[in-house]
């Protein structure tokens, strides 16, 4: 496919290029909406479309006002000069800052819980003597499969009954449950390529099981654990349905704030926030790629 | 094994005299318990925070104690009501009067008045228009004296029709299947036969069909788009394909709400796409423009975009492992490109295709956020109605029944996925 042989018939040449154009169109379909949105977040006007000045790349058509609005919206006194009290006001009162803090608090605690429990479970599941392995794996992965609306509805009743709804612990537990499958899958995948002879070698060289665990197993599975943790974090960071059902304003997260923005008054500030989230995704993607290469190098595979 | 000596029954034992088989069994059992103890914390966690809540919620679809709690004597008295063309006899009316009087006086726990409200709401979900019948009668019940039958019919003429009595009888069982019937646009009539809902109340069959149709359509579109792209990515040199796959991975990692937002920007009435088409003269202004969002089109486009990576990634990983020499061999043996593709290449990609299709279908059938934001009226799916009954109409039993049916479908597909692909082979990113 990569190159056309010299003896190709006209039909084959047409097919070859038509195929590439089609594939190019699909890739554009995938990436275009995200790219289109980014310049619009710098629009000086409060509209969701390109005007002629923007197309002509006139500098006055672009501004960072929507990014400034992220910090200002909801402040007690948004017109004050920049200084310590501005930062304090923004930190305490701005709506987007409030939801950003919540997103990180909930995401980090949920990630810690799901990474710890998920890694431990993956270590157990890959043991040779684990009974009912398939059934238990299926149950542990189910939070990823069950439609989110059903999970959220179930948690709504249960967490209300035990007094955890509209609290931080409630939503953290919910997100931890939703994130564990990703940790289990990633760490299990890392462990399935694990060479058990390394453990035997370590033991035969006189290391205690604890020393083997921390000096041999942990460094080798660390990339898998970290990428599982990132998956869990992004799951929580991106989750909105459970947040809708289980929280009130006090625990509002970024996706929840975007959700109300999209349903009530849509403002270009949402585009600015979305652009920042895309930047976070890019960083995450790079981190995961670095981790994957590191994991393959550690295990003596060729990078690919 | 120089220390081992053969025992009299053929078992081996080592120098200290212990039986080798026993020691092995002990070691295996210890290893098994170790594994179980490592999995147990997560197992208990998932059970408590996830499975138990869902099970409890699903139970609400059949657990329906309001009527039997509120009208215990009436429900018992109604058991004698066999001829459904006639009204129940006087004793039933007397029992109802006693029940309502007891509730008005506070009921068993002082919550009687709020129970009347819930009873009215519950019966109203079943037979619309009876809410006021219950509340009105309950207000007047102190004045109702024997003969009860005439007094009730005088208080509200609905007591003179069998419908409301059939409704009380039907819901009198603390566990009943009314909500499942309602989730399929069915109801029991006065005689207890299962019949269709009146036409104006038939929405769920359409909704189920629409959900299935959109999920199927999105899956098919995803296959049509993902198959060529995965093939291209798998056959291009690694240097180029690593670059191009970013176009797949970046959307995969981008927040769902961000991607939905970007489709609102692209497809909106004054959005990027229509403005661009307007510039080159393909569409007009204002009302001449086609509606691309806040309808089924918007739902399908946005869902395809969001689910496409889930199809590309498994296909790509399968196609990457297929050696190009198979196709070359087929061609050199005389197959034309089409035959070589259908008979040699396609069968080898079936595992990836199966994995992708089931994954996309499972995700599509339970989709909530995107239809809610860009679906408008005719782009709503079953999940959106579950949310509606949870948050707006507060008909939790119906939400639970719809959820149970959806979950059953998803679980069947999950089982199929396990059979075809194996859960252990699930990969991410």
Question: Can you summarize this structure?
Answer:
The complex is a heterodimer of chains A (304) and B (429). With 304 residues, chain A is mainly alpha-helical. Helices cover 72% and strands 0% of the residues of chain A.
Structural write-up:
- The complex is a heterodimer of chains A (304) and B (429).
- Chain A is built from 13 helices and no strands.
- Chain A is mainly alpha-helical.
- Chain A folds into 2 domains: 1-40; 94-298, MetI-like fold (Orthogonal Bundle), CATH 1.10.3720.10.
- In chain A, helix 5 (95-125) packs across helix 8, helix 8 crosses helix 10 (209-238) and helix 10 packs antiparallel against helix 13.
- The longest helix of chain A is centred in the first third of the chain and has 31 residues, at 10-40.
- Chain A starts with 9 loop residues before the first helix and ends in a 6-residue tail after the last helix.
- The mean pLDDT of chain A is 88.
- Chain B has a two-stranded antiparallel ribbon with strand order 1-2. In chain B, strands 3-4 form a two-stranded antiparallel sheet.
- The model of chain B has no long low-confidence stretch (mean pLDDT 87).
- Chain B has 429 residues and is mainly alpha-helical.
- In chain B, 66% of the residues lie in helices and 2% in strands.
- Classes of the chains: A mainly alpha (304), B mainly alpha (429).
- The interface between A and B is large, with 96 and 91 residues.
């Amino acid at each position: 496919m990569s190159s056309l042989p010299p003896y190709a018939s006209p039909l084959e040449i047409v097919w070859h290029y038509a195929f590439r154009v089609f594939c190019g169109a699909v890739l554009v379909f995938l990436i275009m909406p995200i790219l289109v949105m980014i310049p619009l977040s710098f629009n000086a006007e409060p509209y969701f479309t390109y005007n002629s000045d923007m197309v002509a790349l006139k500098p006055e058509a672009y501004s960072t006002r929507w990014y400034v609005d992220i910090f200002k919206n909801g402040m007690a006194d948004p017109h004050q000069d920049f200084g310590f009290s501005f930062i304090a006001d923004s930190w305490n009162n701005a709506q987007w800052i409030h939801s950003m803090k919540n997103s990180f608090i909930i995401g980090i605690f949920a990630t810690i819980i799901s990474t710890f429990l998920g890694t431990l479970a993956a270590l157990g599941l890959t043991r040779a003597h684990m009974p009912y392995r398939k059934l238990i794996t299926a149950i542990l992965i189910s939070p990823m499969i069950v439609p989110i609306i059903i999970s959220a509805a179930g948690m709504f009743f249960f967490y209300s009954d035990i007094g955890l709804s509209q609290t931080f612990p409630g939503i953290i537990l919910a997100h931890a449950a939703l994130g564990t499958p990703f940790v289990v899958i990633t760490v299990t995948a890392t462990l399935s390529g694990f060479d058990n002879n390394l453990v035997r070698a370590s033991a035969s060289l006189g290391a205690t099981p604890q020393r083997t665990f921390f000096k041999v197993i942990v460094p080798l599975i660390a990339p898998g654990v970290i990428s599982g943790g990132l998956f869990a974090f992004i799951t929580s960071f991106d989750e909105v349905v459970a947040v809708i059902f289980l929280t009130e304003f006090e625990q509002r997260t970024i996706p929840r704030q975007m959700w109300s923005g999209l349903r009530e008054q849509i403002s270009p500030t949402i585009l600015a926030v979305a652009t920042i989230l895309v930047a976070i995704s890019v960083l995450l993607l790079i981190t995961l790629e670095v981790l994957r290469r590191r994991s393959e190098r550690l295990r003596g595979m060729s990078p690919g | 094994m120089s220390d081992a000596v053969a025992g009299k029954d053929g078992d081996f034992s080592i120098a200290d005299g212990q039986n080798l088989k026993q020691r092995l069994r002990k070691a295996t059992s210890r290893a098994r318990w170790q594994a179980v103890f490592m999995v147990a914390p997560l197992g208990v966690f998932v059970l408590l925070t996830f499975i138990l809540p869902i099970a409890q919620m699903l139970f609400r679809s059949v657990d329906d104690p309001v009527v039997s709690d509120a009208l215990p004597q009436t429900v018992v008295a109604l058991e004698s009501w066999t001829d459904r063309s006639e009204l129940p006899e006087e004793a039933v009316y007397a029992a109802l009067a006693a029940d309502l009087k007891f509730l008005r006086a506070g009921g068993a726990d002082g919550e009687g008045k709020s129970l009347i409200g819930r009873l009215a709401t519950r019966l109203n979900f079943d037979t619309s228009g009876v809410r006021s019948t219950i509340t009105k009668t309950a207000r007047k019940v102190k004045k109702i004296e024997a003969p009860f039958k005439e007094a009730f019919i005088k208080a509200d003429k609905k007591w003179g029709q069998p419908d409301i009595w059939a409704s009380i009888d039907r819901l009198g069982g603390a566990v009943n299947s009314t909500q499942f019937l309602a989730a399929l646009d069915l109801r029991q009539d006065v005689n207890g036969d299962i019949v269709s809902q009146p036409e104006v109340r038939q929405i769920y069959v359409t909704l189920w069909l629409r959900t299935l149709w959109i999920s199927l359509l999105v899956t098919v579109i995803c296959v049509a788009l993902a198959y060529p792209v995965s093939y291209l990515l798998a056959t291009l040199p690694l240097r180029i394909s690593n670059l191009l796959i970013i176009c797949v991975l970046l959307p995969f990692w981008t927040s769902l709400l961000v991607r939905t937002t970007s489709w609102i920007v692209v497809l909106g009435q004054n959005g990027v796409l229509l403005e661009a088409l307007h510039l080159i003269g393909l569409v007009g202004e204002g009302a001449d423009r086609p509606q691309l969002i806040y309808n089924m089109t918007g739902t399908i486009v946005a869902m395809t975009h969001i689910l496409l990576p889930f199809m590309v990634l498994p296909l790509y990983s399968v196609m990457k492992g297929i050696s190009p020499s198979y196709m070359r061999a087929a061609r050199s043996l005389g197959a034309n490109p089409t035959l070589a593709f259908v008979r040699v290449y396609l069968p080898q990609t079936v595992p990836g295709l199966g994995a992708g299709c089931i994954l996309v279908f499972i995700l599509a059938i339970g989709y909530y956020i995107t239809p809610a934001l860009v679906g408008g009226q005719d782009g709503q799916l079953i999940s959106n109605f579950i949310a509606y009954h949870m948050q707006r109409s507060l008909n939790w039993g119906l939400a639970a029944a719809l959820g149970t049916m959806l979950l059953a479908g998803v679980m069947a597909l999950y089982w199929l996925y396990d059979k075809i692909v194996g859960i252990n082979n699930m990969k991410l990113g």
